Amino acid sequence: MYGIAQPIAIVVRMLAVLFLVAATYNPSGYSYWHWAFRGDASNWALKIFLGLLIIFGFVFCIYATWRSMRILLSVPLILLIAACLWLLADWGVLDLSDWLQRTLALEAALVVLLGTGVSFSLIRYRLSGQLDSRTIT
Amino acid sequence: MTTPGILVRTLACFLLVFATWNPTGYNFVAWARHSPWATPPEIAVAGTLLLALHILFLRIAWLSLGADGITAAIAIMLAGGLTLYQFDIIDLWQSAVWPYLLLSGFALLLAIGMTWSLLKRRIVGQSNYLGTPP
Fold it and tell me: Is B133 exposed, middle or buried (0-12, 13-18, 19+ CB in 10 A)?
């Protein structure tokens, strides 16, 4: 049923955010960034259209993250992600002096942050029964 | 909120907008003005029904999107229209296209407004709540 944070639902949201982030920019050279700003000026209307959709996607994710976690949980989550990256670097799994690995690690961190934010109202509802709602009248 | 639910709402918005007025001559305005069989009470009933539906849909869209959301939706639709023009799917220099474009844009805006609260609740679990029913 909708409104219940099942594990698969969180995975799907994470994958959707991963798609958004990776489609906007990734180090392989095939991304919206490279297509729109590093190529020629062809298809400019389509580039504007997709650019607006990408901006909308990010605003949507950031707004949902901010609404569901605010400062009280988003800052600890950012610290936790940073600590995890530090731990991985300390173990030698991740080489942060390497541009490629650093870029990928930052993108993964962004995906985890926004993915958690997008899912967090649902997680909180399942965890505690506290429904996130906004009064619009 | 399912895919058929979105489609039905979108279809209803298009139906409402195009039933009120469209360039073909088969619509409420043309019927009320030119049909020899339209009696005043019939026009009154149909007209108030359409008016009530327009107010309902517009109010829902306004509450769910707000000024920011409507601006964003219009900007994205403008860019989408420009894209269709660039790919030669529509010809903006042909004046007959414009009424359909504007009506479709308006209907799409209503459809986005109708579905947005449901979509948002389904995607991120954040509900819009009416303090006092408007």
Answer: exposed
Looking at residue A2, what is its pLDDT? 56
Q: Which of residues 42-101 of B touch A (CB under 8 A)?
A: 63-64, 72, 75-76, 79-80, 82-83, 85-87
Residues A19-78: pLDDT tens digits? 999 999 999 999 999 999 998 889 999 999 999 999 999 999 999 999 999 999 999 999
pTM comes to 0.91
Distance CA B37, CA B27 (A): 14
Cα–Cα distance measured from residue A101 to residue A119, given in angstroms and rounded to the nearest whole number:
26
Residue B55 CB neighbour total at 10 angstroms? 10
Rounded to an integer, what distance in angstroms lies between the CA atom of residue A108 and that of residue B51? 50
| DSSP 8-state secondary structure symbol assigned to residue A98 | S
Average pLDDT of chain A, as a whole number = 93
Residue A92 C-alpha, separation from nearest chain B C-alpha, in angstroms: 36
**Whether A5 contacts chain B with CB within 8 A:** yes
B129 DSSP β-pair partners? A135
Whether residues A133 and B134 touch (CB distance < 8 A) is answered with no
Residue B76: the pLDDT is 97
d(CA B81, nearest CA chain A) in Å: 9
Q: Cβ contact (<8 Å) for B127 and A43? A: no
Interface check for B115 against chain A (CB to CB < 8 A): the answer is no
Q: Is A48 left (phi over 0), alpha (psi -120 to 50) or beta?
A: alpha
Question: For an interface test with A, which of B90, B120, B127 has the most A Cβ atoms less than 10 Å from its Cβ?
Answer: B127
CA distance B81 to B74: 10
pLDDT number for residue A1:
47
Flag whether residue B128 sits within 8 Å of chain A, measured between CB atoms: yes
